[in-house]
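Researcher: I'd like a candidate sequence for this fold, 579 residues long. If you have to choose between options at a position, lean toward the conservative one.
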């Protein structure tokens, strides 16, 4: 066979690179198809990637969350420190949920598996999922130390040469509320890595390559240089921003100083509030994950995500602050804070990309863990024996509105930055005894602007058959709504209440009594640009669609809507001239 010329070699390289991305996407889709829990099957709360023999990420799946993908990118090297690749065998799988080594809290299980070509290890596949339960207090902010938050699995074998570690699986089943779902997800993690490995070997045989080193170096160097070229197009300097959060029982501040230089972007979080005594703290690898995502979103969104492109973004934070907690601080609800980091980063980048940055969004997911059963809740209806009401646990994923973009409205009810999908009501009601009474857009929650912020939603949920349920709440943007940009108004603040009027706190364990319903009013995204610059016809369309009320059309946008739903142009002109 003739030796390919340089041009053909470049073509082969690009084809193989694209194939790698397709391979890991198939890995992720296998994970979603075989997983048991709705957080994986329906929401896509996962990550999948392929790594070289040194533990560097070659490619990631399109499906997945930045918090998982970018944390997992640094996790594989920790596995290799404990179990060197040379000692691994075909059929081996390794697992951990160590928050400080992987994805930031115990609910995320990461599995790493070697791939062999003709008996030689050529790379590794890794994947992560958020399991519905990991024991302990659950996925809420009430823990004071990580020991209270669930079962901790150090880096250890999940399978040896194809034989599952039954001792480990027995420990897991004995410590979680939903053993069938959790064990099913663990098997799905191993299965998807096996599928990725098979597809990788097929590709290597097809292109007649014996190792991934040459392809990997091309991927890393090309991605790194593309990322640096985009960074070098920005003005160098240090740019600062801060963001206020509700916190658990007192307000918190996130502070960032972004240093842009020819060698990359470094973000320092000095000035951020000290660690919380509750489980909303963030470990540094998760801080890096969402910081890197925020930078890449605006600076170089089309550069593939891998070890090369990620190497251009670094972070630092004082140990003991909210964004860099040591063991054994509680971290179960770390996403509550971590999801705010892109908004914080965007505020820095607005200073070097004026007018080109979205407004703040709801950002932090509203995804309470809901538990029920006679051993979980008090106040069971008269005549019911607690022993006759089986225990259960479920996590629902819901989101508010995204911030308005510089030239488009914000996306309503969209999970940015996490990228997870909302779990359909039908799926939740099928696996858990809950009843959704309402789920609809929240009128007026999108911040006014030339481009309107995305709307939040209204959800009403309670126990099926009138039974009480217990909630682990971690809701943000109740006191500090998403800020607008360039004259745009803030999005609507979130609100939490019971239909009965009984007060309920946004964070911590709460109970929805028998026959009552929890009402969640999710926050909206901030607006972008002056509201009076918005096209009156677009405002009229928003009113007709129930997204903005007639009153807010006049007060916020200076647009008067006639009785027939059309714009009263004369009245609108007068109103806008007055204000």
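Model: Candidate sequence:
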């Amino acid at each position: 066979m003739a030796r390919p010329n340089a041009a053909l070699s470049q073509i082969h390289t690009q084809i193989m690179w694209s194939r790698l991305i397709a391979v890991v996407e198939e890995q992720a889709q296998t994970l979603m198809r075989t997983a048991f829990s709705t957080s994986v099957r329906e929401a896509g709360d996962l990550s999948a990637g392929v790594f070289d023999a040194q533990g560097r990420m070659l490619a990631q799946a399109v499906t997945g969350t930045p918090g998982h993908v970018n944390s997992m990118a640094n996790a594989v090297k920790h596995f290799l420190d404990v179990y060197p690749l040379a000692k691994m065998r075909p059929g081996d799988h390794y697992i951990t949920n160590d928050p400080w080594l992987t994805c930031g809290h115990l609910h995320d299980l990461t599995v790493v598996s070697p791939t062999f070509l003709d008996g030689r290890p050529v790379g590794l596949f890794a994947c992560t999922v958020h399991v519905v339960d990991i024991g302990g207090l659950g996925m809420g902010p009430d823990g004071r130390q990580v020991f209270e938050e669930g079962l901790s699995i150090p880096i250890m074998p999940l399978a040896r040469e194809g034989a599952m570690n039954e001792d480990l699986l027995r420990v897991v089943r004995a410590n979680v509320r939903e053993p069938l779902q959790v064990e099913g997800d663990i098997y799905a993690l191993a299965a998807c890595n096996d599928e990725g490995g098979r597809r990788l070997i097929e590709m290597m045989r097809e292109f007649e390559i014996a190792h991934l080193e040459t392809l990997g170096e091309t991927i890393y160097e090309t991605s790194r240089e593309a990322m640096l070229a985009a960074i070098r197009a920005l003005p160098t300097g240090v740019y600062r921003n801060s963001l206020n959060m509700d916190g658990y029982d007192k307000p918190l501040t996130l502070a960032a100083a972004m240093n842009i230089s020819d060698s990359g972007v470094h973000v320092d979080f000095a000035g951020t509030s000290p660690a919380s005594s509750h489980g909303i703290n963030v470990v540094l690898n998760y801080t890096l994950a969402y910081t890197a995502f925020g930078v890449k979103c605006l600076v170089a969104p089309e550069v593939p995500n891998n070890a090369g492109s990620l190497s251009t973004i670094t972070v630092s934070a004082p140990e003991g602050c909210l964004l860099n907690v040591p063991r054994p601080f509680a971290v179960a609800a770390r996403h509550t804070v971590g999801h705010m980091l892109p908004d914080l980063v965007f505020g820095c980048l607005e200073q070097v990309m004026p007018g080109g940055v979205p407004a703040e969004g709801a950002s932090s997911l509203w995804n309470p863990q809901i538990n029920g059963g006679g051993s979980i809740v008090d106040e069971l209806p008269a005549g019911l024996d607690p022993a006759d009401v089986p225990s259960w646990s479920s996590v629902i994923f819901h989101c508010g509105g995204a911030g308005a973009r510089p030239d488009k409205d914000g996306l309503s009810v969209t999970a940015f930055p996490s990228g997870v999908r909302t779990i359909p009501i039908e799926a939740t009601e099928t696996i858990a005894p809950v009843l959704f009474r309402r789920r609809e857009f929240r009128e007026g929650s999108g911040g006014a602007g030339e481009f309107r912020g995305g709307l939040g939603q209204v959800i009403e949920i309670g126990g099926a058959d009138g039974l009480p349920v217990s909630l682990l709440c971690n809701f943000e943007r109740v006191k500090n709504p998403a800020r607008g940009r360039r004259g745009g108004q803030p999005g609507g603040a979130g609100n939490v209440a019971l239909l009965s009027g009984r007060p309920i706190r946004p964070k911590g364990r709460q109970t929805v009594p028998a026959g009552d319903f929890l009402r969640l009013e999710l926050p909206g995204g901030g607006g972008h640009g002056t509201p009076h610059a918005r096209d009156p016809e677009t405002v009229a369309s928003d009113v007709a669609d129930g997204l903005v009320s007639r009153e807010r059309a006049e007060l916020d946008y200076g647009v008067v809507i006639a009785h027939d739903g059309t714009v009263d142009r004369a009245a609108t002109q007068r109103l806008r001239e007055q204000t």
